[in-house]
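Re: that chain you flagged

S.,

Sorry for the slow reply, it's been a week of failed gels. I finally had a moment to sit down with the sequence you sent. For the record, here it is as I used it:
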Amino acid sequence: MSILVVGSVALDSVQTPFGNAKEALGGSATYFSVAASFFTDVRVVAVVGEDFPEEHLAFLKSRSIDLEGLVRVPGRTFRWAGEYGFDLNEAKTLETQLNVFAAFQPEIPKAYKESELVFLANIDPDLQRQVLGQVSLPRLVAADTMNYWINGKPEALRETLKLVDILLINDAETRQLAGEPNLVLAAQKILSWGPTSLVIKRGEYGALMIRKGGWFAAPALPLDSVFDPTGAGDCFAGGFIGYLANTMNFEEQNIRKAIVMGSVMASFNVEAFSLDRLRRLTYPEIEARYKAFKRLTQFEDL
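Prediction finished late last night. Pasting the structure tokens below so you have them in one place:
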């Protein structure tokens, strides 16, 4: 089943203690769509400038990602520059150039309007609602957001959350959005606004899912090579929603499996800069790592 994703396609410049990448392929919609493409068909709605390299388009097409909704307009592509210290959980933003992304008004192609799964990547919550207004009765809507929108457009974000089934944010954003330092109480408040599930991305500490019926926790896999965490959250979302699209099973037990698959995809992403690890990733590797996650959490009573 196809997923419609609306977000950014960008050029990133990243510095970590282990190296750097300049003007590399990035953006929330990019990371999400590449990760999800291992499980299902993906349709992208985004904007790039006339300077966007053809080689990046060729790579996305090689993953069978539908780019009818990716428009090229006069101007420069969205750019982000960031730096990580040895604490790879937090990026220091050095520069953000919105460029053509500043005037982005998502137009959903006719062929995309019947998409049954929609992922609203990290964009203006008013634009997120505009997207949903152009789609016919999706079976599942998932969304991401960030502190910029939580601070700047809290009421608009609350309106969007009324239309969302699953919200994926990190633990700091959860507390900030709810205005509540206790994570349990913060999660409960957010669920009362509309979503049926809240998935909290916790980087090297794994992920949590909170539903009205209870909690589920998944660890992060210990890795011996971590080079660049940029896009890990979007790859998590891609693996998570991609698995749900592949199975079309939205029961809690299957959502738990999807969370582990999201963690699998994020764990591969951090092993190289940009999308370089996912470029050479194979499905047997994904299956093997999924089994490694299962072994990590299995135990028996003595």
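What I noticed first: The mean pLDDT is 94.

Talk soon,
D.
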